[in-house]
Amino acid sequence: MKICFLLDENLSPKLKFAVLRLNPAIDIVRVRDPDAPLLGTLDPELLRYLEVSERLLVTYQKFYEFFLIRMYTIIKLSLVKL
Fold this sequence. Notes:
By secondary structure, this protein is an alpha/beta fold. It is built from three helices and three strands. The chain has a three-stranded parallel β-sheet with strand order 2-1-3.
């Protein structure tokens, strides 16, 4: 299973370009990209997007540590189903 990422709006857009320069095959989008949440999306909606799209959130906010662990669990469980 391929791991996909969502960069939170508090991170520089340059981070996405740097990651893709290193490896263009990485599936990474940033808030406000097409097919990604809009800038200012509320946290509950953002978390629903992460769950539905099975993406990991990359952020600089401590608040999300619990949710990152939850997303890891969801991905781990889906790997078991394969």
